[in-house]
Amino acid sequence: MEDIDWKNMWFWYLKTKSNIRCEYINWAWQKPTITTDENVNIHMASTCLNYWQECFEWLKAFMWKDSKVRVFRWEDNLERMNKSAQMMCAPSIPKDLFFEMIKEVILDNIDY
Length: 112
Fold this sequence. Notes:
- The protein has helices at 47-50, 74-87, 95-108; strands spanning 19-21, 24-25, 28-29, 33-35, 61-63, 69-71.
- The chain is of the alpha+beta class.
- The two termini are 20 Å apart.
């Protein structure tokens, strides 16, 4: 960790090959899907537009010199997301589903 140039580390949007999405339909989490679409299409009556009901978390993963990918505090991201969901009476994301989605999207974007 001593070799990390923390002052010049970037934390802005970086286009990658893909992203992963998982919908909650009929009281169940659906199978996650990988997509290259950077846009999120939402209905004009979406509650996040009308009532500001939305949960969103960014997650960073980095390839280290030892060629291992490390994800920055993914369990904390999940905890924050689930706390937000709980406050809105929305379904929480199971830890195993969240972790599998992280692995899947990292493998699909390993060249980034």
